[in-house]
Amino acid sequence: MNDHVKLNFFASTPEACSYLANRKAISAFANPHTDMDMSTYNDLIQHGFRRSGGYIYRPHCPNCRECISVRVPIKQHRSSRNELRIMKRNADISIVGIRGKFREKHFELYQKYINARHGDGSMANPSKSDYHRFLICDWTETVFFEFRLGHRLIAVAASDLMSTGLSAVYTFFDPDFDSRSLGHFAILSQIELARTRELDYLYLGYWIRECSKMSYKKRYRPLEGYVNDQWVPLPHTLS
Length: 239
Hints:
Elements: E1 9-11, E2 15-16, E3 24-25, E4 27-30, H1 38-45, E5 50-52, E6 55-59, E7 68-73, H2 81-89, E8 94-99, H3 104-117, H4 128-135, E9 142-149, E10 152-161, E11 165-173, H5 182-196, E12 201-207, E13 224-227, E14 230-233
Parallel strand pairs: 11-12
Antiparallel strand pairs: 1-4, 2-3, 4-6, 5-6, 7-12, 7-13, 8-9, 9-10, 10-11, 13-14
C-alpha cells in the first residue's frame, strides 16, 4: 500500500459465514473513526478491499481464502454473443446517473427486490436505516444509475467512481422484469460507461467458487482476481 495511507485495522468477531455453510467469517475493517476519502479508498480497493455503507473491509478468515476480489480489465473486455443479446434486448431502456443519496422510489424498489430474492435471509424486510447503512455514504463519489422503461423505474445500480475505475456496489431491480436479465445488463452498462470514461477497471467485489450466488461474476471476461496480494488473470475454466 502507498506510504501516505496510514490506517489502523480491526478484526471483527467470528460469525456465521453468509456464503459457505458451516464456516465462520472474520473481516478486517479500516478504523471507522478515521477520516476516509476517495484517494485512500481507491488505494484500498486495489488491495482487495470493499465497502459496505461507510465501512471499508476485506475478508480476513485465518483458515479460508475462498473470497477473491475480482475486477474486469475494461480495455481487454470484448462482448460475448450472449452479452450482445442482453444489450439488444434492453435497448429500449434509458439510463441516467444521479447523485448517490437516499430516494424513496429507490428504497421501495430495493424492498421489492430483496423480499423477492432474499426474503428468507438476513436481508429480508429491510428498513430505511438498513438501506442507508448498506448503500449510502457521505464521503464517496457514488452514482446511482437509474434504469427506466418509459417512465417506470425498473432497476438501480449503485457504483463508486474511482480514479482507476468503477466499483459496482450493488444492483437491485424489479422482479417483474426477470426475463430482461437486468442484473447482467447493469454490469454490462457499467463496463461500457467505464470504457467511455477511459477507466481501467470495473470492480465486482468478491467471487467465491463454491457459492452459487457469486457464480454470475465468472461470466465476465477477461477477469482478474486479487490472489496472494497481487492481481492475476483468472482462468477461463473457472468452475
